[in-house]
Amino acid sequence: MADFGFTLYQSDLYQPDRPFPLYSSIRNEVAEDYLDLTAIGELIKNPSVGPKLGASLITPFNASAKTKVAALESTFQMLVIDHDHDNLSAEALQALYDNYDCCYFAFSTSSHQQPPEPCNRWKVLIPYDNPISSTEHAVLAAGASVALNSDSAQSRISQGFFAPNKLHENAPYQWHIENTKPCLSPLVKEHPFVRDCLHAYEAKDKQLEEKAQRASSDAVQCRKYPPSMDGELFDKICNTYDIPSQLEQHGYKRCGEKFLSPTSESGCPGLVLLEGPDGHQRCYSHHGAADPLSHENHAGHALDVFDVICALDFGGDTQLAVAKLADAADPKGQQERRQAYRELATQRSDPAGAGVLVPVDLNAFWGAPETPQKYLVRHYFPKGEFALLAGHGGTGKTAFSLVLAAHVACGSTWNGLASIQSRVIFVSLEDRPERIRTQLQKICATYQLSATTVLTNLVLLDGTQSDGVLYAEKPDRNTGTTLLWQQFKQLLNQKYADVGLIFVDNASDAYPGAIFMLQKLYSPC
Predict the structure, then answer these.
(1) What are the residues facing 61 on neighbouring strands?
(2) What's the gap between Cα 385 and its chain centre?
(3) Torsion over CA of 87, 91, 94 and 96, rounded to 10 degrees?
């Protein structure tokens, strides 16, 4: 394409103060530099050469980390569009974007015209004249992927993009910079580009809303009460609790009339509130299976407040949910139900009259010596028990776990607490092996632990190549172990039967639901 030079148009609002973080590789978690549009333009004109994964990474949001949490809390100053599958020629791409009255940057990607399927692949960057929130950006990005028939994966809220790169010196590479027009005003709905994106987003959103309304009507016919809950109790629970407060308590963010799931990859609010034909409020989540309330996890059903609480607080265990919620919603009725249950249990007790509860003679073991609890690390890890280390993201759960894992592998004292040497397995479902290795090296050096002993007794299992889910809800709304868990258990039985301590990092990756349900999974270990 032609080189139009590079004198970037500056509007009165746009302040080019290096808002775009640059990471030296996709694996790095800390930005090495921050770029302005001029610097990005220079990268486009002078691409790097080498393997794609060795290229630098840039994010369109201004944050010190390229995580979803950081993206949601940041402002965006650029829209990135990926034409990865529509095989647009250079002329067709330029004709498409020249229709819009805004500046843009276009360059071919590392995969451009490369085997096994040579075709045209482009990245297009559209800078904003003013930073906007992640929610505003998410809607624009989602609409652009529909309106322009581009790759929707690029519209994920935390998605970065590789800096311009060629696989080798002779690889085809093209670029174009349209800098004679102003940066896009993303909040001006009358702008042709913004208008087209919003229309596409609203059309798709309308389809999803109609689908949710149908699911809400179907829910009335398909609801099945747990054996311990009748219709009267269900009504009382629905009248005692409300869906919006339950969502907000569990990190769902209100965005106008909708809610954004904390597991969302797109950043677009996908959970809608509905009024059922029976008068009860319901919700329907268009988010993916990582959201405990997703329609994918509930056979396409809309959820009432009981379903919501059951999924978020009780891992889908309806019996446990009824037992807890009935006390608050219908205390008198619950007392009557318990009395009726006791009477029924007495009627069903064995002829000898032992009853449901068996009396124990304390004299039989009153003078017996106490059996002490055995710990791998005193006060922290009792042998044969399940333990959950909880904390906000980035507070050091992984680092702390690796410190204890290394000490147990060596049988060394940590912080004045003795440990029993044991073989340790560390299952990483979040961090790549390279990061775990780096942390272990620092731990051995800091605490003067034998690296040889750690490497002998500590087994690292990498689960980042899969979705990492060990325990999940099934389409029939029950929960159960996954194939990954079955493989893990088989590996334990066949190769690591002598392991004394297992770390699974982390719980939210292993089970996309209520964390307390993890005990059902991990306790057998």
Answers:
(1) 76
(2) 28
(3) -60
The pLDDT tens digits for 256-302 are 889 999 888 888 999 999 887 777 788 899 988 889 999 888 888 88
- Alpha-carbon separation of residue 204 from 32, 144, 286, 458 (angstroms): 38, 12, 12, 50
What is the DSSP-derived secondary structure letter of residue 373? P
Question: How far is the CA of 419 from the CAs of 41, 286, 374, 376, in angstroms?
Answer: 56, 47, 10, 5
- Alpha carbon distance 303, 300 (integer Å): 10
In this structure, the strands spanning 122-133 and 57-58 are: unpaired
**75 class by beta-carbon count within 10 Å (0-12 exposed, 13-18 middle, 19+ buried):** middle
- Distance separating alpha carbons of residues 423 and 411, to the nearest angstrom: 10
Q: How many CB atoms lie within 10 A of CB 477?
A: 16
- Write down the pTM of the prediction: 0.58
Helices (H), 21-133: 37-45, 68-72, 90-98
d(CA 455, CA 348): 57
- The two structure tokens encoding residue 520: 């059902």
